[in-house]
Amino acid sequence: MAFDIEMIKKVYANFGPRVEAARKLVGRPLTLSEKILYAHLWEGNTNTSYNRGVDYVDFAPDRVAMQDATAQMALLQFMQAGRPKVAVPSTVHCDHLITAKLGAAIDLPAANTESKEVFDFLSSVSNKYGIGFWKPGAGIIHQVVLENYAFPGGMMIGTDSHTVNAGGLGMVAIGVGGADACDVMAGLPWELKFPKLIGVKLTGKLNGWTSPKDVILKVAGILTVKGGTGAIVEYFGDGAKNLSCTGKGTICNMGAEIGATTSTFGYDESMERYLRATNRADVADAANAIAAHLTGDAEVYAEPEKYFDQLIEINLSELEPYLNGPFTPDLATPISKMKEVAAANGWPLKVEWGLIGSCTNSSYEDLSRAASIAKQAVDKGLTTKAEFGINPGSEQVRYTANRDGLLATFEDLNATIFTNACGPCIGMWDRVGAEKQEKNTIVHSFNRNFAKRADGNPNTYAFVTSPEVVAAIAIAGDLGFNPLTDTLTNNKGEQVKLDPPKGDELPVNGYAVEDAGYQEPAKDGSGVQVIVSPTSHRLQLLDPFAAWEGTDLKGLKLLIKAKGKCTTDHISMAGPWLKFRGHLDNISNNMLIGAVNFFNEKTDNVKNELTGEYGPVPATQRAYKAAGIGSIVVGDENYGEGSSREHAAMEPRHLGVRAVLVKSFARIHETNLKKQGMLGLTFANKDDYDKILEDDAIDIIGLTTFTPNVPLTLVLNHADGTKEEIVVNHSYNAQQIEWFKAGGALNIIRREAAA
Ligand code: F3S
């Protein structure tokens, strides 16, 4: 079904020569991250050495993975690219759109009904363009990728920030927006700033209650949510070799929570065991043949301070279990301190739910270790004080765990087995009573715990920890319970202690599955029809954006001058809007509704210059569009920070905004604007932000000679009849100017495909 051994062999055939060329070029030993990056330069170009954190570089990723919420727009764009099939192996995974409520047997059919047209669309578009399709219930994207596609030394991109999970199998795997995925699937290079490198040296061996999760919980405490920005985190040392492959996946997964570009580990025996257990002996054999290239050079790990931009050391033998939270994943508290820290902060001690799952911690090993705690509870006469919910990571994990009695053990503690899907981790949890917004505590094995993330209740205090600690604390029903030292009272009134968890890295009797939920695409998809109903509320085929008219833009209305922070959430909110991710016109009704209007300090309330009335941003912009009048959005610093969702660029483009002018951009959003054919401009003098008045008519001059590194001019025609000229900068290179002229990068891809 799955992996493409021929593609992997091709990557490996080039790997050694490229690494050797790169080593000569930079004139020193290489880290693993550098080896993978240099081995994946576009067109094998190893003639240039790159500056970390400075140079933008074109790469050729080996694979693309997409989850159902983001795949819709990525594939709607790909359909416009005019390609008969994807240029690199790609997969779609249906995991985000399944609500957890009563258990998989009821929840999965309900989701299949509710989101039928989205799943049918993703299935047919995958079938047509040669994309592997994993049906709802097949599992969570990153677990399925680890089990089937990840391979040591590979490079992949995915339309989900936790794509980084595949670092557990020695990949450089990076989360991107759908437009980037579309480019790579269309056979184009993928650009990334050459990352900085953070080394984490692991010594010793985990023991007792400590698990791989505690490594990343500790690292998050050290680096905080921003500490990994722009960097690859590379783990090495004897301690790394002592970790299981899925445990390494857990650590890499939560690298997203420290803002890291990705995280990775060198190839070792744990990876080889995992590859063989998941039916990929040929990948293991191929990796063994070039094993020396699939880890950092010995000199690097002997003197890491010379080769990494930052170095952290952790002794696994001394590591303690952690609980991170509430409301942020970097607030790390060792389990021995939780009782006093929680009391000091007024965190509710009574635990209402223990949730095990998410792409972070839903492997067989995770379930087996947590089940060993659940089994002890039953054997020792304990009942659980909190409710229990389990989301297995994949159908293969679920089937095997069920065969081996692990799920029955959880059910003995009245656990609900939810679908093999994201569920509560993405807020798709119909939690009874959450609407009352009561202050309460939950513990889970997920990665994120922002306010409202799991159940929509801003007063839910969520703590992130390992599956085995989730199990122990849920049984105790007490956030301050420390299973290393504390006892519990059983049904005979005796004091009993839980022994440390035991688990199997891999199932003793091997993995098994009857129907993994995979749909192989048609060999020739040219006859496959992709059906999107014209009356659908959830899906809409894209029309190409119009090309530039060839003149300067004159008389633009000011749609909004946004004040202060304006992230992609302010521009295109998530939450209830998630269901419109495949329908550009409907989701455009959330455009900029979170941005604060500079002139009245209100959100979603701007002046319609045609009527003089104030109203919602989307409706005002629709009025300009209907009148055939262009508009401009003005913003502050770091405009468009946050997620890489391209909706934040496509919505203004769709509704007729012609330019976004800001003090500074978040890089990915600026690129997204360019890709969609929008003008993204910055004030040459940031104080000119103050010159923009609410009733201005604005001209953009210089477009007929639009050239790299040459600023443009804005004429502000004020309502009192006066005029001011200001200079605005842009960062368009020659190719990006062509995107602007063509009305978007996709129009060029399509034109080339038709030629
Ligand atoms: Fe899904 Fe949560 Fe992972 S939403 S992909 S399980 S972070």
TrEMBL record:
A single BP term in Gene Ontology: tricarboxylic acid cycle
Ranges where the Aconitase A/isopropylmalate dehydratase small subunit swivel domain occurs: 558-685
One GO MF term attached to the UniProt entry: aconitate hydratase activity
Catalytic activity from the UniProt record: citrate = D-threo-isocitrate
InterPro entries referenced in this protein's UniProt entry, alphabetically: Acnase/IPM_dHydase_lsu_aba_1/3, Acoase/IPM_deHydtase_lsu_aba, Aconitase/3IPM_dehydase_swvl, Aconitase/IPM_isomerase, Aconitase_4Fe-4S_BS, Aconitase_4Fe-4S_dom, Aconitase_dom2, Aconitase_mito-like
Cofactor: [4Fe-4S] cluster
Pfam families, sorted: Aconitase, Aconitase_C
Source domain of life: Bacteria
Keywords assigned by UniProt, alphabetized: Iron, Iron-sulfur, Lyase, Metal-binding, Transit peptide, Tricarboxylic acid cycle
Residue stretches in coiled coil: none
GO cellular component: cytosol
Domain Aconitase/3-isopropylmalate dehydratase large subunit alpha/beta/alpha: start-end pairs: 34-477
SUPFAM superfamilies hit by this protein: Aconitase iron-sulfur domain, LeuD/IlvD-like
Pathway it works in: Carbohydrate metabolism; tricarboxylic acid cycle; isocitrate from oxaloacetate: step 2/2
Signal peptide: none
Enzyme class, UniProt record, top EC level: lyase
EC number(s) per entry: 4.2.1.3
Record bears the keyword Transit peptide: yes
Family: Belongs to the aconitase/IPM isomerase family.
Protein name: Aconitate hydratase A
Native source species: Pedobacter africanus
